[in-house]
Amino acid sequence: MGHRLTQISTRTGDDGTTGLGDGTRVPKDHLRISAMGDVDELNSQLGVLLAEPLPDEVRELLVVVQHELFNLGGELCIPGYTLLKDEAVLRLDEALATHNATLPRLEEFILPAGTRSAALAHVARTIARRAERAVVTLTAQDPSAVNAAPRQYLNRLSDLLFVLARVLNRANLDGLGGDDVYWRSERLLRNAE
């Protein structure tokens, strides 16, 4: 990546365009810019989650994820460039398997609630899904626009954030959780009677 920001206010975007990493300018509502913005928002939300008390292994994982999301954003910023490695997707698969193995089987849908850290992980999960949809939309418009790894990474990351929300509820570091918050479905209510 050849260009580094040396100043923030350049006024070059006042005309409704923005520059990509390869120097081309595109409208600010371009699908590529939307995808980059969603990835940036996701990374920022993970920064908020990292400001919470977290188990050490979750913190370490999320710091790595932040760096990988920055790589993913860089890849989106430079058409045809590969920056996110396949190993990043594999790392998420391994983390999913490790953390999922510690959790009880779900009996019903759960609400995005519980401890503050779990709720923040759920917000990040929904942003990851939106970022994934943006990458899918960009790829549908131009199949060569994005490599497969960014889409796969976002898909796995949203799954991992769901699992981590469950882990964080059980970690109960703020004393407000301890378990999943189950949806009170008609079926559960009937079975409880």
UniProtKB/TrEMBL annotation:
GO biological process: cobalamin biosynthetic process
Top-tier EC class: transferase
EC annotation from Swiss-Prot or TrEMBL: 2.5.1.-
Chain positions covered by the region annotation Disordered: 1-27
Keywords linked to the UniProt accession: ATP-binding, Cobalamin biosynthesis, Nucleotide-binding, Transferase
Record keyword Calcium present: no
Top-level taxon of origin: Bacteria
Keyword Thylakoid belongs to the record: no
The Cobalamin adenosyltransferase-like domain, residue ranges: 8-167
Transmembrane segments: none
Coiled coil: none
Gene3D superfamilies with a match to the protein in the record: Cobalamin adenosyltransferase-like
Catalytic activity: 2 cob(II)alamin + AH2 + 2 ATP = 2 adenosylcob(III)alamin + 2 triphosphate + A + 2 H(+)
Single Gene Ontology MF annotation: corrinoid adenosyltransferase activity
InterPro entries for the chain: CblAdoTrfase-like, CblAdoTrfase-like_sf, PduO-typ
Family designation: Belongs to the Cob(I)alamin adenosyltransferase family.
Protein name per its UniProtKB record: Cobalamin adenosyltransferase
